[in-house]
Design a protein that fits this description.
The chain has eleven helices and six strands. Strands 1, 2, 3, 4, 5 and 6 form a six-stranded mixed β-sheet that branches. The longest helix has 25 residues. By secondary structure, the protein is an alpha/beta fold. Helix 2 packs across helix 10 and helix 5 runs parallel beside helix 10.
C-alpha cells in the first residue's frame, strides 16, 4: 500500500476532521480489498467504507452502538447523508468483520511491523456478562460449542473472576497486535499459545510471562521460534542477561497496549449477545486500535500515544 504522510496533527483538530481522515484511509485500504466483497445486486448507497469508518471510530469513543449511531445522525449527517437505520448498520458492520480483519492486517503490514522478529505474548480477559449472572447465560457455550464450565475463568493480574473468554495476543515490541486467538476463559495460556504461535509464522522470537512455562514441549516444532520464558520461583533461573533485560523492558509495553485496549477501547465491555457479535466486536476493537496506531505512524508520532490522538 502506498504511504501518504499525514501532515496535520489530529489531536489539535476537531472531531469532524478526525472522521474525514479516518474515512479517507479506511476507503483507501478498502479499495485494495474491494474485489473480496462482490455481492449480487446494486451497490448500497451507504458504502462499506462508510460503515467500517463509523464502526472503527465508534470503538474509539463509546461502547454503545445505539448512542454512537444517534450521535452521528444528529450531529454529522452532512458527512454521512445516506446513513442507514441502526438495525441495518448493526447487521452490515457485523457482516463485514472478516474484511475488517484483513484491513487491520494491511495497516499492520504498511507500518513494516510484519517483518519484526521479536514479539511479546499475553492474554486479556473478555467477559460476556457479569459473573453473578453467568449461571443464566448459556448462549455462548452453545454457539461456541464448548462446555459451559470452560467459560468460568480467573484473571490473576486483576484478581477477578470472569465469565467469558480471554483474548490471547502476540504483539510486536512496539505494542501493536500482530496475531490473536479468542479462547474460553478457563483455558490456560500455555494451552492456547501453540495455536497462537503455529498459525502465525516461523522464525520469530517470543517473550512471555511465567504462565507459559512448558510451552516448548507443546509446540510441534519448538525450533521454529525462540522463546524467552521467565522461570517459576521453584525453578532455576537460566535466563541470560539479555533475556532478563528484554523481559523487563518490553513486558511494560504490552501491558500498556493491553490497558489501552481494555480501558479506552472497552475490550472488557463488548455488549455482545452472540458468538457472531462477540467475534465481530473484538475484531472491530483491534482494527480500531490499529487504525489509531496507523494514524500516529503517518504523523510521525509515538504509536501508542492514542489517548492524545482521540481522547
Amino acid at each position: 500500500m502506498k504511504e501518504n504522510k499525514l501532515e496535520i496533527k489530529l489531536k489539535d483538530s476537531d472531531f469532524e476532521t478526525l472522521l474525514i481522515t479516518c474515512f479517507f484511509y479506511v476507503d483507501e485500504i478498502y479499495k485494495l480489498l474491494e474485489h473480496l466483497t462482490k455481492r449480487p445486486g446494486t451497490k448500497p448507497s451507504f458504502s462499506d467504507s462508510e460503515v467500517i469508518t463509523l464502526k472503527l471510530t465508534e470503538q474509539m469513543f463509546t461502547d454503545s452502538e445505539k448512542a454512537w449511531h444517534g450521535f452521528i445522525r444528529k450531529n454529522y449527517r452532512s458527512l454521512f447523508p445516506k446513513l442507514v437505520s441502526l438495525s441495518r448498520y448493526h447487521r452490515r458492520s457485523k457482516s463485514l468483520f472478516r474484511l475488517v480483519e484483513l484491513m487491520r492486517q494491511v495497516m499492520f503490514n504498511s507500518m513494516g511491523l510484519d517483518t519484526e522478529y521479536w514479539h511479546i505474548m499475553d492474554s486479556i480477559p473478555v467477559p460476556v456478562c457479569l459473573y453473578a449472572r453467568a449461571s443464566r447465560n448459556t448462549r455462548f457455550s452453545e454457539e461456541f460449542e464448548v462446555d459451559k464450565d470452560t467459560l468460568y475463568g480467573y484473571c490473576a493480574s486483576k484478581k477477578m473472576k470472569i465469565y467469558g473468554f480471554k483474548l490471547h495476543m502476540m504483539d510486536t515490541l512496539r505494542g501493536v497486535p500482530a496475531h490473536f486467538v479468542l479462547a474460553p476463559a478457563a483455558y490456560h495460556d500455555v494451552d492456547v499459545a501453540p495455536e497462537l504461535v503455529e498459525t502465525y509464522r516461523q522464525g520469530i522470537g517470543i517473550g512471555t510471562d511465567k504462565g507459559y512455562v512448558g510451552l516448548a514441549k507443546k509446540l510441534l516444532d519448538p525450533g521454529a521460534v525462540r522463546l524467552i520464558i521467565p522461570p517459576k520461583k521453584n525453578q532455576i533461573n537460566t535466563l541470560t542477561a539479555f533475556e532478563k533485560w528484554f523481559l523487563a523492558k518490553y513486558r511494560r509495553i504490552i501491558e500498556t497496549a493491553g490497558s489501552c485496549l481494555a480501558e479506552q477501547f472497552n475490550l472488557q465491555y463488548t455488549r455482545a449477545k452472540s458468538k457472531w457479535g462477540l467475534i465481530s466486536r473484538v475484531t472491530a476493537k483491534l482494527a480500531s486500535f490499529t487504525l489509531a496506531v496507523y494514524l500516529n505512524f503517518l504523523m510521525g508520532q509515538p504509536l501508542l500515544n492514542i489517548k492524545e490522538l482521540v481522547f
